[in-house]
Design a protein that fits this description.
The chain contains seven helices and seven strands. The chain has helices spanning 2-9, 37-47, 64-72, 82-97, 124-132, 144-147, 183-205; strands spanning 11-15, 26-30, 52-57, 76-78, 101-104, 136-142, 162-167.
């Protein structure tokens, strides 16, 4: 239902769909700029032939209409608290082992940088990848922050924004994989993932990130 509306109010550019495996477990790692990112990544993964599952705040299941959407999509609720976070992590591991496509925003929220470059990633995604051997496909979104800026209640469709979603080849992590990765291995894997996302964003934006940006 939303796709025709977006087609009428925005322009889209999808690249790199070939990097998303057509079957088997896969982790999609994307930067996070806007509440519109999940929709953009969903349309991209569908175009690549996969149905995505997301980690999402458990509070979304409190609203009846949204709960139906989240449940029908088999998305993974994230509760507050260490024990609940571990439960969500295990659900994610089970999902990729069952062959699902799971989307993760490794920054854990919107970037904290005003210039739009990614902020430092958290290690949960790396732990899932290293302990399961699941490929991590980096994805960069750009333009979603123009459609729906953080803090805005309504989308901005004029001037008509162009939404870019581009994927790169899976991040090389095989040398770090194992059942009990160390803290240094988790950080190294996370840095490789975030660097890959930043490199894609450089390609989309046509700009070099400042020296203090992740992956610069």
């Amino acid at each position: 239902m939303l796709a025709p509306l977006l087609a009428a109010t925005t322009r889209w550019s999808f690249r790199g769909c070939r990097h998303v495996p057509r079957r088997g477990g896969v982790l999609i790692a994307s930067n996070h700029l806007s509440f519109a990112d999940p929709l953009a990544v969903t349309l991209f993964t569908l175009a690549a032939g996969r149905v995505p599952r997301f980690f999402a705040k458990a509070e979304l299941w409190d609203t009846p209409v949204v709960r139906r959407v989240m449940s029908s999509g088999r998305h993974i609720p994230v509760h507050r608290g260490k024990a609940s976070a571990l439960h969500s992590y295990r659900d994610g591991v089970s999902a990729v082992r069952e062959g699902d496509c799971v989307v993760v925003f490794p920054e854990g929220g919107f970037t904290d940088r005003a210039d739009g470059w990614p902020s430092r990633g958290k290690t949960g995604l790396a732990r899932m990848a290293l302990t399961t051997g699941t490929p991590v496909v980096p994805v960069a979104c750009w333009g979603t922050q123009e459609l729906l800026p953080v803090g805005s209640r309504l989308p901005k469709v004029w001037p008509r924004p162009t939404l870019h979603v581009v994927a790169g080849p899976p991040v090389e992590l095989s040398d770090l994989a194992g059942e009990r990765p160390s803290a240094s291995q988790l950080r190294e894997a996370t840095e490789r993932i975030m660097t890959s996302i930043t490199d894609l964003l450089v390609e989309v934006r046509g700009r070099t990130p400042p020296v203090d940006a992740v992956g610069a």
